[in-house]
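Human: Here is a favour to ask of a fellow structure person. Comparing notes only helps if you start from a blank page. Give me a protein, with the fold worked out from its sequence. Please set it down just below, with no commentary around it:

Assistant:
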Amino acid sequence: MKTSRKTPLARTTAVLALAIALALAGCSGGTTPEGQAATTVGADGKPEEKKAPAVPVEVARVTKQVISASYSGTASLEAPAEAQVVAKSSGVVLQVLVEEGDQVSAGQVLARIDPDRPRLEMERSRATVRKLENNFRRAQELLASKLVSAESVEQIRFDLESAKASYELAQLELSNTNIVAPITGVVAQRMVKVGNLIGLNMPAFRVVDISQLEGVLNVPERELATLRPGMPLRMVVDAVPGQVFEGRVDRISPVVDSGSGTFRVVCAFEGGGTLRPGMFGRIEVVYDERVDALTMPRVALLEDEGEPAVFVVRENKAVRVPVELGYVNGELAEVRAGLKEGEDVVTAGKVAIRDGSEVEVINPAAPAAAETAVAQAVSE
């Protein structure tokens, strides 16, 4: 009877011991730091290595293409030739011959002011001139007969010259009743209406020459040695998305502003088309260009501090490779050393891998498709 009571207790103790052993074995076969192989307990009780799963990543191919070095800035477009047309005579506006948006030429009549008063003034001056001309002619005849003094004749001559000047001034006043365009351009604003009384030097129109537009960049002084007049420009404007406008550097100020540490760069663009004064543009000054440069996507660069580096996929493993960078322009970065053409660099999934990690490329067709697209573009 005593023996039969001890048997269940022994079995219970054996079961508990086995459960504790299995639990300890399960704990020893758990997860390990990322990138290291996990261990499990085999049937014979010995630890076995468990291979870590491959990390999915996206890659891009290192290729040769054109890359440029540039400086980018923003500026509002302005018309270098602009004129405020003012009235050079006072009076009532009888005619308005142009409207806003009309193309006008230099010297073209834009509006007419009532010319009656200036015309009468001119007629009076002309009559005075004729009278003095007759007096001067008779005085010369009398002087030849020595019936008048030479001083009297000289006085009449002076009066005649003064009257002629007054007559010319009256003619000018009459011509000023026509408001004319001082430059060739487009009427940007009309400030007068028919029947308005306009005073001397009051603004009547604003004419803008939009055949050439300018944008002024305030560039840091470190770029003074790299920028030169005549360099090509590229500009995009918010009003015309998707279109790139070409231009050139027109003038560069030789003086650096001591307060801001910048100098003025005047950029010129051809107007008369889509571009208009007042548009806001993003301007890129291209000061160097390399045609056959080894490039990769800028997003492939690792964001940790220190020397620039990327992850290169070699035999399904991520290898950390330091690189020497050249020009960095937009989404592209030039590789001067460290990579070869045709290698695949990791662009997505970098944070989940370490040097030597197993990786699985989930976009293997993307590089080939990109090369095919480039080849098609070149053939076209």
In short: The first strand starts at residue 38 and ends at 41. Residues 143 and 149 are 7 Å apart (CA to CA). The chain is about 25% helix and 40% strand. Residues 1-15, 21-38, 365-380 have pLDDT under 50 and may be disordered.
